[in-house]
Amino acid sequence: MNILSLNDDALADITSFLSTRDALELSATVRRLHPIAKQHALSVILLDSPQKMRRVCAYLLEDIPGRLTWLRHLRVTIHAFGIEAEYDVERGDYSTATLLANTLERAEGLQHFSLACAEKVLPAEPRIGQALASLPNLQTLELQQTAEGALRVASRQPARLRALVMRQLEYLFTTPQVFTELAPLQNLKSLELWHIDERNTGAVSGPILPALRHLSAIKVCAPMFMFVRAFPNIRALTMRNVCVSPHSTFWQNEPTDCWPRLDELAARPEDFAHWHVACRVQRLRFDSCIQRDADKAATLAHTAVQNTGPAVLQLEASTWAVGRFWSGLARNASRLRFVDLILSDGRSMTNLAVWIANVPQLLGQIELTCLRIRINDLCKRVAPELDSGVPVVTEEAILRDLPTRLATAVPSLRYLALGIGNVVRGEDGVFQAFDGAVSWWIVEFQGTDRRLKPISADIGEDAIMNGVPLWRGTGGAGGMSNR
């Protein structure tokens, strides 16, 4: 079949998998593919050096209808201003700010914009803020290294803005009133705040953004109740490295305000020591690894599960957690129906054989409908010269024996997935993706016998996302992301 015989929509789908460079090269091969491949190549642009900033902006401005009009996502990193880290912001080269303003003023199709060093760039060229406020299709705005000036620019964005990321300079000598400045953005649905402390919130007496649905609080040092009162209607919460200062007025007497319920909650177990989330949560994700049974993180994880009653739990655990953590989870997880587990241990020799021998029986104490276990490849590698006395479990043995052991140990199990591969993490160490094949089975009953029937990964993933057979007795449907 000749690829050129496909319609434009099909060709656009194919080129969407190409990198920018590959799409540009493809656009130069055949006249039929030129506009489609070029449109994709110019839709997402990353500016990460001063030279690239000058070259790409000039290129786009040379042909606005044929080039700039296709721009949808634009990200300008800290490296575009000749610096390597936030502490170098004062020494950045912001001479290209005018060129960036010229580009933004004409980028009418731009939907997502991310700008580093915002507190320096925006004062250097006020037209950038004015251009952002005038863009007719801008939906997501991300401002890095911000303070008062950038915050004011954000507050002047039009009502169509749906998502905002504000990453304040980590060490500020001023205290911008973040909540007050954000009040004009009444249609905002998603907000991500970094490096906010109690001085930035001011006195919160009532809702600031009642339409907000997704809140991310990262490296925040302020009581949770302030965010509950300011954003009372959120349905998804991400909190990471949150705390309450010992010098806070509310250190010993914090109000117990909490959201009535959440669809999604992502946090490190350690964060629950500071923000006491105690409401019904449909999907709970722990963003740091449970290393050992006796770790403080394990105890906090038990408390979090008890206080939130999730139907879905996504977590990463070490093979050294083989007893008290899982038995404690079973005691506190009456609503739990789906466990999505990353099993890893990259810091020491494997204890996988002990985990396989003990944990399936503990999982059987939970009325699980679905279980997905993805084993980090580091977990099963033991150097031959290290005679640890611990039995080494081969990949073949895991894939052959573990599914049957799990299906037998967990009577309520309906869907099972098992994979071995490598974990992909972000810059903050949080799990992002799993690189490896995952096998899926449906558990069938034949009298008193249980049989594992292989199914495609698509069917298994669809079962998770649609949730129809997974949430029996949990009061609603839900899904789980690939994260």
TrEMBL record:
Q: Which InterPro entries match?
A: LRR_dom_sf
Which superkingdom?
Eukaryota
**Which named protein is this?**
F-box domain-containing protein
Organism of this sequence: Wolfiporia cocos (strain MD-104) (Brown rot fungus)
